[in-house]
Write the structure tokens for this entry.
Amino acid sequence: MEVVNALGRRKSAIARIFVSEGSGKITINKRDLAEYFPSSSLQYVVKQPLNKLGVAEKYDIKVNLCGGGFTGQSQALRLAIARALVKINAEDKAALRAEGFMTRDPRAVERKKPGRPKARRRFQFSKR
């Protein structure tokens, strides 16, 4: 099997991944998964598509992650992994879509409007 690459985005986080046959090692920005995401819940989010298909120990994944916070990064990585698994085996798409791993979450920060302190916040009203 050759190297398969995929891209995942969430908020302002971008995950570029390269999947190859291996022993299940996930390397993010030249660091181990457990070192990059110390939280077990974020590690779980990243591994969800792999665990759903039962191929967690089958592929080595090399990741280039940038932008955003840790939650956005973990969800961007989950989308990238799901997309790569579909490139490898197209029959897995239905199972991953049913779990919601194939859908790009479109929610992002709303822009700040002029004359306001934030996007929707107004300055405090003073009657006198």
